[in-house]
Design brief:
Blueprint: E1 2-15, E2 18-31, E3 41-48, E4 55-57, E5 66-78, E6 87-95, E7 101-108, E8 113-122, E9 137-145, E10 151-157, E11 161-164, E12 168-169, E13 174-175, E14 179-184, E15 188-191, E16 199-203, E17 209-216, E18 221-228, E19 234-239, E20 242-248, E21 256-263, E22 270-278, E23 287-289, E24 291-295
Antiparallel strand pairs: 1-2, 3-5, 4-5, 5-8, 6-7, 6-9, 9-10, 11-24, 12-13, 14-17, 15-16, 16-23, 17-22, 18-21, 18-24, 19-20, 19-22
Length: about 300
C-alpha cells in the first residue's frame, strides 16, 4: 500500500524585474508493507519414538483391541512475513462422535519453526454407541495464523496400522490390503502372549531376509517392531534397495518387548519396501520381528 503526503511549496522567480511567486505541490510518497495476505505454510506429520515400546492390549473376547505407540506429531511452520505481528498455532485432538480437545497451542516466534509434541496414537479402535460412533482419536487438526489473520489448517490421520510378521492385521486376522510380507532363509515362529498378537518370526541364520512392502500416502512412515534381549543381535536394514545401516537388538538386561527400533523418513506416495537382513552376531545371532507399523 502506498500513502501520499502533499506539501505546498512557494518559489520566487525574477523575470524582467518582476517577482513572480509560483505555487507548486510536491508529492512525497513511501511504501507501507501490505498485510500478509497469503496463508502460512504448515507441514504436520506423525513419527514414531525410536526405543518406545508398543502397548499390548489385544483381547479378542471384548469388542475393542488396540496397540498404542508413543509418537511425535511434528508441526513445521514457515513462510511468515517478518513484518507481520507474531503468529499463533494450535493443535486439537479429534475424536469420533466427540468434541475436539486442544492438545497444545502457542505463538510463532521465527520462520521455519518446528514443534514436536509427544502424542499417543492408536492402532485400532472399538465400536461402541458412546457418542454415536467410534471412541477413538480420528485425527489431529493443526491450525496456524499469521499476524494478519491469514490461517492454514492441516489434518493428520491418527490411527496406525499394525501388520504382523505373517502379513496379517491382528484385529481382523486377515491379510492387510496394500501390504505384503515375504521371507528368504530359515524363519520360525515364537508364540508367547508378550508379543503383539502373540507371536514373532525369528531366525539365527546369517543372511535370512524379510521384506515388507506397503503402498502408502504422501508423508506416511513405516516402523519396525522387534524385541530386544541379551541373546539377540544385529540386523541390516534396506529401504527400496538402499542400505540404511544396522539396528542392534542386543541389551544386557531384561528383555524389552515390542520395541520400535527403526522407522523410515516421511515417504512419497506409492509402494515402498523394507528389507531386514540377519547379521547373525557371533554369540547372539538371533533376531525377532514382531510387526511393522504404518502411521501418518
Amino acid at each position: 500500500m502506498t500513502i501520499g503526503y502533499a506539501r505546498r511549496l512557494e518559489t520566487n522567480w525574477v523575470t524582467r524585474g518582476m517577482v513572480v511567486t509560483v505555487a507548486m505541490a510536491t508529492m512525497l510518497t513511501w511504501a507501507v508493507p501490505a498485510a500478509h495476505a497469503a496463508p502460512p505454510d504448515v507441514e504436520a506429520r506423525i513419527e514414531f519414538v525410536i526405543g518406545s515400546q508398543v502397548d499390548h492390549n489385544y483381547k479378542p473376547e471384548v469388542p475393542w483391541d488396540a496397540a498404542y505407540a508413543d509418537a511425535v506429531l511434528r508441526v513445521e511452520l514457515g513462510a511468515f512475513d517478518d513484518v507481520t505481528p507474531p503468529g499463533t498455532w494450535s493443535v486439537e485432538t479429534w475424536f469420533a462422535g466427540m468434541a475436539p480437545n486442544e492438545l497444545a497451542s502457542g505463538s510463532i516466534g521465527a520462520l521455519g519453526a518446528e514443534i514436536g509434541l509427544t502424542v499417543p496414537i492408536e492402532a485400532t479402535d472399538y465400536e461402541d454407541d458412546f457418542g454415536g460412533g467410534t471412541f477413538a482419536v480420528t485425527h489431529y487438526e493443526v491450525e496456524a495464523a499469521n499476524g494478519a489473520g491469514a490461517t492454514t489448517t492441516v489434518n493428520v490421520t491418527a490411527p496406525i496400522v499394525v501388520v504382523q510378521e505373517d502379513g496379517k492385521n491382528a484385529r481382523f486376522d486377515a491379510l492387510e490390503p496394500g501390504t505384503s510380507v515375504t521371507t528368504n532363509g530359515r524363519w520360525r515362529m515364537s508364540n508367547w502372549n508378550g508379543w503383539l498378537d502373540g507371536q514373532t518370526a525369528w531366525t539365527t541364520k546369517k543372511g535370512s531376509r524379510m521384506w515388507f512392502t506397503a503402498t502408502v500416502s504422501e508423508g506416511q512412515v513405516i516402523a519396525i517392531v522387534m524385541p530386544l534381549a541379551k541373546n539377540r543381535g544385529e540386523a541390516r536394514i534396506k529401504l527400496d534397495g538402499v542400505n540404511q545401516g544396522r539396528v542392534d537388538t542386543y541389551v544386557p538386561g531384561k528383555i524389552q518387548r515390542r520395541t520400535v527400533v527403526w522407522q523410515t523418513p516421511p515417504l512419497s506416495a506409492g509402494s515402498h519396501t523394507i528389507e531386514v537382513i540377519n547379521v547373525a552376531t557371533p554369540g547372539h545371532p538371533r533376531i525377532d520381528i514382531d510387526a511393522f507399523m504404518i502411521a501418518g
